[in-house]
């Protein structure tokens, strides 16, 4: 493995560790416009259309799951929790770490790539729908079920 390959592999796994949890992408997008209270995050995320083709997505985010996700995201440094004592009861808002906002900007070219390859994404979604997110079979089974490599 070359040094470049090693950096790429480590970077991809680092990104997966940061953004790979089920609800993190939706929460991050909700916070992109600025700080929100937990109930505002919940309603914003639940207003999003989550594509049912991705089998690892529940269609509704519940408050208990949001609370756990936000706590983990705080521990990871993805979001900040800000408590305001200017009102009673005190209000708590969550805001993106500026580095995460930078990551969203940097992701734009990758997102454009996904729009340029809808057939590949549809194939991946179909496979995940049939076999679950982790495949469910050995690597050598069923290789004939997939289309040939493009020339």
Automatic annotation (TrEMBL):
Residues 123-151 are annotated as: Disordered. It holds the Pfam family HxlR. Gene3D superfamilies: Winged helix-like DNA-binding domain superfamily/Winged helix DNA-binding domain. PROSITE patterns: HTH_HXLR. Residues 10-122 form the HTH hxlR-type domain. This is HTH hxlR-type domain-containing protein. It comes from Amycolatopsis deserti.
